[in-house]
């Protein structure tokens, strides 16, 4: 019975609950029973279940509240069971994260089939995620797409650093790929077969930072129903990535320094220190030396994590990488889309290469995915680019009295519309763009028919 799937059965009708429990037990499942929202919420906070079989109509609340709260924690692991079913209720339940929807009275064979389908889906999803992780780890530095000498030099250095056990500080603007570089370093290190635990320090509330990083004992605070190991213990013998480390509060920085210095963590409310052996990678989009000078980051912690340093340059300073990345992401997008593959015109490529990409590689990737998914099954041209890319802003230092490019474009479109007496088909032909592009330009430039 140790390997039996553990199901939480939430049903207020005691005889029906016992009947379902007995049926599931006969078919090899371990079942924990719950009679209402309050009890189920407590059980879900105390234990981990393989699947939740959830009635929606409960005496102390609505099962939808449980579904909405715990669906992120139980993706595709909640099957809704209700006697007041309707198409609207089913659609709402599925949108909130339910894997399946069964109406009472349910046929036992149908229930068993639904559970088997759910567990098959969960296993296939897990296998797919494991395969993706294996492929990603195997790829390592091969995941980077570049042509610039700056990136070639950076990755050569990173490969050399990966072979050491030293702490590495990775700096760079948001979207440059700091986490991807950390993954490549781990995949090429001596501890590549051990876990890589990534922690986004910017998203941890200050009052939860210590328990999140170092763990806690049962009863340490309200809601601590069981021991939690914390990120450092989970990363033992592997690598921990402290992303956006510059956002850690000063008091947590002091505790982090002690852990890095002596290799010991003490979970909240524990009297026993635990020894850990961890490779530390830190990343920040801030200038930590500047943060030290302003008293926002501890100098001793900075020197501890700054044993080796890697800086990823922004995309605008390595323009040779832009078009290779464009082609790379377009290839991914074309594989993901079922319709005919898209390509990019020469003029659009020129404008993409000239754009500064303030959001760096992340912005470029999202832009290409958006272009490829927006219905352009043929060539992505200049008319499909956002105005900021097709007409870059004028550089500083020029005559400020010169009209902006958007004003020139607006004036030209208005003249063509007046010339054609607002015949949109004729105007689009004169402008050599499609009617849909004309409508989009009119909306962007706030052009109204007069």
Q: Low-confidence segments, ≥5 residues, pLDDT <50? A: 394-402
Q: Could you name the CATH homologous superfamily of the largest domain?
A: P-loop containing nucleotide triphosphate hydrolases
Count of DSSP helices? 19
Described by the principal axes of the CA atoms, the overall outline is flat
Largest sheet: 5 strands, parallel
What is the beta-strand fraction?
Answer: 5-15%
Structure classification: alpha/beta
Q: Tell me which CATH architecture of the largest domain applies here.
A: 3-Layer(aba) Sandwich
Distance between the termini: 77 Å
Order of strands across the widest beta sheet? 2-1-3-6-7
CATH fold-level assignment of the largest domain: Rossmann fold
- CATH class placement of the largest domain: Alpha Beta
Radius of gyration: 28 Å
Share of helix among residues? 40-55%
Number of domains: 4
- Give the overall pLDDT as a whole number: 85
Total count of strands = 16
